[in-house]
Amino acid sequence: MSKMHVKMTVNGRAVEALAEPRTLLIHFLREELALTGPHIGCDTSHCGACTVDLDGKSVKSCTVFVAQANGAEVTTIEGLAAADGSLHPLQEAFREHHGLQCGFCTPGMITRAYRLLQENPNPSEAEIRFGISGNLCRCTGYQNIVKAIQAAAQQMAVATTAPGEAAE
């Protein structure tokens, strides 16, 4: 099969490569760009371990062809940390609140939670549980994942409150 020239922005950086159009985005990210944060879990789009942010939406990158991502903006778990290496509030909250055990689902879970908090900065517990329902965790029972997302939401609300304003 012939290769196509693909261009996209990944974690704020412009990338270009030749790839077969039928290459899955997860394989492109891991094998061509060496971004191994998104995990290959089930290959059937059920687990969510491969979740990335694509043009402002959470997607399971095992369901997207690289040709479909041509020209897109992609954010992986690696792109959430600050340029100086400091963790994103979600990453820090997962660490502080023990929102992970084996860690396999964690990159996809955090990436999905990132988009969830962009869509709803102050979600209820039920909204969080519904919002992450496409991402499976076999270890934690979700309690601490929910706590971590709630804590990150509070931290992010405080960080975006202007001086002299009260956080909602």
UniProtKB/TrEMBL annotation:
Coiled coil: none annotated. The keyword Manganese does not apply. Pfam families: Fer2, Fer2_2. Residues 4-80 form the 2Fe-2S ferredoxin-type domain. Keywords: 2Fe-2S, Iron, Iron-sulfur, Metal-binding, Oxidoreductase. Signal peptide: none annotated. One of its GO terms (molecular function) is 2 iron, 2 sulfur cluster binding. This is Carbon monoxide dehydrogenase, small subunit. It comes from Tistlia consotensis USBA 355. InterPro entries: 2Fe-2S-bd (IPR002888), 2Fe-2S-bd_dom_sf (IPR036884), 2Fe-2S_ferredoxin-like_sf (IPR036010), 2Fe-2S_ferredoxin-type (IPR001041), Beta-grasp_dom_sf (IPR012675), Diverse_Oxidoreductases (IPR051452). The keyword Metal-binding applies.
